[in-house]
Write a structure and sequence with these properties.
- The chain is mainly α and 242 residues long.
- It has 13 helices and no strands.
- The protein folds into 2 domains: 167 residues, no CATH class; 51 residues.
- It is globular, with a radius of gyration of 19 Å.
């Protein structure tokens, strides 16, 4: 998009968001991810209708993967719900970072509900990149269109993966599911401009595998806390000595 994108109406902004989603590389990532997700749902006995519904309601591939895997192995509903909820808390900082870009002087609380639910890795990365160039009064509509474009892609290719599952090797399905975390990682690396961001990434890359190897419970959570804390401490020391 140009540095100053204008739309004649909120409806045009919404469809501009849909178009941006469909032309984004993240749509290709979602296609592969949800072909794998559909194959997994087929293998564990989750119906295609429930797969589509969980995509719309959960809208987070890792949490959805946890849910489908746990339900497929007969996990208790309470434990499944708790695991999905804990997994989804990682999106809270993304929501906090995104809302100031969407909120204007006349923005109502109910206007923020859909963007809050729609916040996902792909939508968040693209929103931070594209929204500053869009007039504030059209940002919510654009953001909703962007998310609906991604969600529609996920639902469509979830169905495709479900009905192609019989001919999809398990290894390929696993590789496809790995596309989302890898795309987020590469986007984070490319957008890491400040020293504190690069330090946090470096600490995380070292700590994550170590904690997983040592069998530490909640290893991803501790990786974020320790790695982010160390990066912040180095940043503060560096600022104090300048």
């Amino acid at each position: 998009m140009s540095t100053s994108t204008t739309f004649p109406s909120a409806v045009a902004a919404y469809f501009g968001g849909v178009k941006s989603a469909l032309l984004s590389v993240f749509s290709l990532v979602l296609m592969g991810t949800y072909i794998g997700m559909g194959a997994l749902a087929h293998d564990v006995g989750v119906s295609s209708g429930w797969l589509a519904l969980s995509t719309v309601l959960v809208w987070a591939a890792p949490a959805q993967l946890i849910m489908i895997s746990a339900l497929g192995t007969g996990g208790p509903l309470f434990e499944v719900a708790l695991a999905v909820t804990l997994s989804a808390t990682r999106l809270f900082p993304m929501v906090v970072a995104l809302l100031p870009l969407l909120r204007g002087p006349g923005t109502r609380l109910r206007d923020m509900l859909l963007p809050t639910h729609f916040t996902s890795i792909s939508m968040w990365v693209e929103s931070l990149r594209l929204l500053p160039a869009i007039a504030p009064e059209h940002r919510i509509a654009f953001c909703n269109g962007l998310s609906c474009g991604y969600m529609g892609t996920a639902v469509t290719f979830g169905f495709a993966g479900y009905y192609l599952a019989a001919g999809l090797p398990p290894l390929l399905a696993g590789v496809l599911l790995f596309l989302t975390p890898m795309s987020f990682f590469l986007s984070t690396v490319s957008n890491a401009r400040m020293m504190i961001d690069r330090l946090a990434l470096a600490f995380g890359l070292v700590l994550g595998p170590l904690l997983a190897y040592w069998g530490v419970q909640l290893d991803l959570l501790w990786t974020g806390i320790i790695g982010g804390g160390l990066a912040y401490a180095v940043h503060r020391v560096r600022e104090a000595t300048q």
